[in-house]
Amino acid sequence: MEKPKHHMLLCASFRVGGEPKGYCHKKGSTGLLQYIEEEVLDRGLDVLLSTTGCLKQCEKGPVVVIYPENTWYGGVESEAVVDEILDAIENGGTADGYVL
């Protein structure tokens, strides 16, 4: 596999024991997985999506981090927010309203 241009990390609130707990999970972060994957494919973006354990930003969650830019987004609770983030990736910018 070639290295992707962008790596999107979506907090799924997994803990060491494997069970999801915490704010991001409770606010539905994992419910956005399929939508993000489909949008990435539909837009032809070179983005690898991964879920993570707790990113320790619970009060600002759900949280998404984009690498290599190291841009952290909070309040990613809907498809509309995901669209803004993906638009920013496409345009080489940031979704300023959600940057942490």
Task: Characterize the structure shown.
There is one protein chain. With 100 residues, the chain is α+β, with helices and mostly antiparallel strands. The chain has a single domain (6-98), classed as Glutaredoxin, CATH 3.40.30.10. Helix content is 28%, strand content 23%. The chain has helices at 23-26, 33-43, 79-91, and strands spanning 6-14, 47-53, 64-67, 71-73. Strands 2-1-3-4 form a 4-stranded mixed β-sheet. Strand 3 and strand 4 form a beta hairpin. Helix 2 runs parallel beside helix 3. The protein is globular, with a radius of gyration of 13 Å. It starts with 5 loop residues before the first strand and ends in a 9-residue tail after the last helix. The model has no long low-confidence stretch (mean pLDDT 91).
List keywords for this structure.
single chain, 100 residues, alpha+beta, Glutaredoxin, four-stranded mixed sheet, 3 helices, 4 strands, 23% strand
